[in-house]
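Comment on the following before class.
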Amino acid sequence: PNNPDTVTPVATRRRIYFVCYHLPVSVSKNARGEWKVAWSESLLANIVDSNLVGYTPHWVGTVMTDGHILDDLDRDELKMILASMDCTVIYFETSIRDKHYQGFCKQVLWEVFHYVDLVDIHNNAFGFDLDVANDPEKSTGTIHDLRSLWDQSQVGEWWAAYNTVNQTFANIVGKMASRNDVIWVNDYHLALLPSLLLSEETRTEVKPTQKIFYLHIPFPSSRIFLEMECGVSILRSMLSADLIAFHGFSDARHFQSCAKRALGLTERRFAGGLIGLTYRKRHVAVTMNHVPIEADALDGALEQESTIEFERSLRSKHKERKIICGINAAQYLSGLTLKLLTYEKFLSDAPAWRDKVVLVQRCIAKGDRCLDEKMTLREVRVVVDRIMKRFGHEVIDFEEVSSVPIEKRLAMWKVSDCFFSTEIRGGLSLWPMEYVYVNGSKECPGVLIVSEFTAACSILNGALRISPHDLNQTLKTLDRALNMPIDERQGRSLRDIEWVSSSSAASWIQNVIRDLKDSSPDEEAPDDKATLPSKAMAVSEFLKTQRDERFTRLNPSSVLSAYKSTSKRVIVLDFNGTIVIKEAVDSFLKRSQVGSAGDGPPQAAYAALEKLCLDDNNTVFVISGDMRQAIESSLGNIKGMGLASSNGSCFSPPTKQAARSWLALDIASNWEEVKKKAIQIMSKFTALTNGSHIKLAHSSIGWSYFDCDPEWGSLQAKHLVLELEDQLARFDVRFVNLKGIVEVMPREFNKGVIVTKILRDAASRNNGVDFVLCMGDDISDEKMFTSVM
C-alpha cells in the first residue's frame, strides 16, 4: 500500500500526458458487436496502477482495430470506452494513416534510425515500396519502383502525411495540457510534435509545458541521419523538448554528434551527471534510462495454466535435448538468417550435438514492413529447409507467427538452456530481461547470448556477447554456453537478477521525471542576478554558460531614448558575430562561409550603418580581428565610417572621401621573430589538418580551422596552443582560440586599445562624449567594454 505521507492529493497533482502513436491497448469487437478493450503488454500500460508521485497519467494516441471501426457511431462508442481508461483516441483517414505509418515511418524513418543508408537500399530488403501505403496485401514493390534510388522527392506524399499526423496530435494535446504539465512524446512516429507544441506556446505566450521526447529505437550516426532531406527538421524538433531520452549511451552519443555536426551545438553539463545541449537559448538535457520489465506481471503469467501447459508441451516435444531458443522479427536487421547459418555450421562441425540439441525459433511477421518481411522469409525458409534435410526435423522447431503471447514466450524461456540473439542493428528488447528473470529461480539457469549491436548488450552484465558477423567466434560462444557449468551459469545470472527483479515501469518513469527536474532551471531563482564565476572557472566559460540565463538584457527603448537626447555619440561595433552572422564553428555541414573574409552584413544592417554614418553627431567604428582587406571590402564604401582591423592595430578614421587612409599602431620590436616561429609551427598543423590555413594580419598570426571537421579541428587547435605556448614562452605574446581560429598577438594589443583611442579622439574633437554604445558577441570583446567604463 502507498504511504499516505508520500501520496500527493489528486487535486494538486500535475498531469503527465503519455503521447504515443499507438495507444497501449488492445481493441477488438466480438460477434455481438461489443467492443473489448484491454491494456496491452506495453510498458506504458504497466503504470496504470502505479503511484506516480505528484502526477496523474493520461494517454493520447491512435488505436489498431483491424477494420472494426465502420462509422462515426463506432468511433464515438470506442472514444467513450477509452476515455474511461484515461485515454484520448485520435482517428485518421485510412490514406493518411497508411502514408504516415506504413510509408514514412516504416520505410524512411525506421530504416534511417536503424543505420540503413542510401547505399543499403541496394539490398532488396530495403528501398521504397510505393504500393505499401495503398494496399499491403498487394504489395509487390521493389527498389526498381523508383525512378532513381537517390530521388527522395518520391516520398513527398508520405512526408506531407507525417506532418499532418503530427500537427493533429499537436492541436489536440496543446488544448488539453495546462501550465507545468509534462508531455511525454514517445518514439519516431511523432518526432515533429515537440517543435509544434513549443511553437504554439511561443506564439500564444502561454506558460510552456515540460516536454520529454523518448526514442525507443536506435539513433544512427550523423552521416546516415543527415542523408534524409528532412533530417535537420526532425533534429530541430527533438531539440525543442526539455529532455531527450535514449535507451543506451551510444544512441545519445550519436545524437550529440549529429547536433554538433549539423547545428554546431556543443555539450553542456547539468548537476548529477546529466549531459545536454543549449539550443536557441534553451537548455536541453539528454539522458539514458533503461526500460525494465514488470516482475509482478511475469509472476502472474508464470502461474497461469496456459503457461504451464505450453512449458509441458515443449518439454514433451523435445524430451532430453538441450534447447536453444529465440524470437526474431521477419526483418533483415533481426539477423535471423545469420543465426540459422551459425546453427547449421554448428551442427555440421559438431556432429555429437545433433542428437542432443534443438533450436526453438519463432519468426514474427506482423506486416509492418511487407517487402522486408517477404524477402527475409524467402531467405530464412531456404536455410530452415536445408537444415531439416541435412540433420533431420528434430534439430529445429521453427514457426512463422504474427505474435508470441506472453504465456508461450515465458514457457520458451523457462524450458530453454540458452537464449540466442543475433540482431544486426536493434534497440532495446525486453525479452533478454524476461529470460534472466524467469531463469533466476532455476537451479541451472539458462545462458544469454546477445549481439553487441543491441542495447541489452550494455545492460546485462551476465550475458555472453557476440558479433553476429563473426561466425567462428559465435560458434565458440554457442558451444561455451551449452557446455557451461552450473556454478558459472548461476554466477552470471546473479549479476543481473537483482536489477531485473527490482525495477518497474513506475520507477523508470520516476527516474526520467527526476532527470527532467534536475535539468530544469530553478523557477524561484531571480533572473536578474548574475552568478559570479568561481575562481576555478575561466571568465570565457562563465560568459558562455551564463549569458543567456543570468545577464540583464539590453532594453532597446532605453537605448533609443538615450540616443535621441544626446548629440556627441560614439558607436563601436564588433564585426564577425555581431553585425555579420557567422555559422557555428562546431557545425560540420557549413552551408555558407558567412562571416569569413569577404562577406558582409545583411542588407538591413548595412542600411542601418549607412544611416548612422550620415549623422555628423555620430562617430561610428567597426572593429574586426580580420585582415584589413576583408573588412574594407565589406564596409569600406560606407562614407563616414571608421574601420579597424587586426583587433585594432590597423585603423582607418571616418572619412567622407572615396579613398581611405590606413594608420597602424606600433607593435613589438621582435614581432618578425615571433612571426617566423609561429608560422613554422602552424605550417605543420596545416599540413595535417585538411581545411585549415594560416592568416597573416598586421599584428597577429592566425591558424583558421573554421572549415575543418569540427572535432578534428578543435582537437588540433588545443594541441597547437600548447605547442605555441611552449615555443613562444620567452616572447610577450598571448594566444586566443575563438570562432575557429587560433591567434598569436602581442600581449598589450586588444580591441580595448583602439576603443580607448577612438573615445579620446572623439572627446577632443567634440568637446566631450555623452553617449557610447559598444556591442560585441564573445570574450574577445570584453576589453572593448572595460575600456568604455
Q: What stands out?
A: Residues 460 and 496 are 6 Å apart (CA to CA).
